[in-house]
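My main concern about presentation is that the manuscript never shows what a single data entry looks like. For the editor and my fellow referees, an illustration may be useful. For illustration, here is how one protein appears when written out as sequence plus structure tokens:

***
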Amino acid sequence: MADAFQYHSDHLCCEQVDLARIAEEVGTPTYVYSGRALEDAVRGFDDAFRPVPHHVCYGIKANSNLTLLRRFLGWGIGLDAVSGGELYRALTAGADPRQVILSGLGKTRDEIRYGLDSDILFFSVESREELQTIDQIARESGRVARVVLRTNPNVDARTHPYISTGLKSHKFGIAFEDAGPLALEGHRMGGIEVVGIGCHIGSQITELDPFESAASSIVTLARELLADGVGLRYLDFGGGLGISYNGETPPTPTAYAGVLMRVTSGLDITLVLEPGRVIVGSAGALVARVVRRKSQGAKQFVIVDAGMNDLIRPPLYGSFHALQPVRPRGETEVIDLVGPICESTDFLAKDREVSRMEEGDLVAVLAAGAYGAALSSNYNSRPRPAEVLVDGDSFSVIRRRETYDDLIRLER
């Protein structure tokens, strides 16, 4: 169980706040985040790289709530956006544009102009065609765009295939053998300043070897480009460090930093990191209420008021999230925890042994801070959940629950 969520006198709490109190005052389903866990994760990750020049840019896609972004900025880190909308969120949260990078392989011309007009730190570029487009737009506007070329080092991240991004079969990055020539080409473009190279090999990575292999390739290429006169200032190693969902023992940020600092030793360059899941994942839980029970032969279903529209990771990736009843009864049973969505894939857990739950009981789906609320939808015309931030013995609603009126607000 995540440290932020613990039982006190048989009441499951986030920090010092009883989850039943949040459910009573805010309703369900609701995402609950621990402010303490978030700060510990940010400071721990940043401190791990303290011995070397570095920029930590939190990956907004993991959880884009404005209140959380403001906190991260207040704790001294930057932000990694992958769309114009995320860039807008970053700037609305108060980010200095030089704290923000714009990634993503499908940037539109409008998004590129937005980044240029905002004077962001750099664009992460994933193809020759994109580089040429940025060059054209930059020259037309009388600017020079700072870019980092994202390479594809053909490294197996040993994670779920849907969140692995560093192989030649994936759509991401520039083929490694093409990256050097493209960097030299970009170096000669009038609207481009090549300030770095990098990679991002996947998400929920629980071993250090893939990171080390990719970093070694990047460092070799960086030395060659520096020798050729390309003024690299950054090595961007992306994100991807995993968390524990079901007993995994991923490397600590300190161990991760140790590998990258060792591999890059001797280079006078700034490391850029884009952590997302490792910052917010374990700091959040989805709290849901049991609507009813149902038996289907030997199969026992517990139906809750949260579904795949609220947390799509289990049906999308087959992801495991630990379940904890807010008031455990003691006796256990094997159940499927399912939602109300009209899809057979609408489940939060299958064949899971948990404390027996009855209608009206509350259950917390743990390690849901990353890619939970961010991937939620209005499928079946269901309003999205509220989001709550806990600080010690108090909490605040940082995103109100949507209403039926919200569902149709943009329609006519």
Observations:
- The longest strand covers residues 284-296.
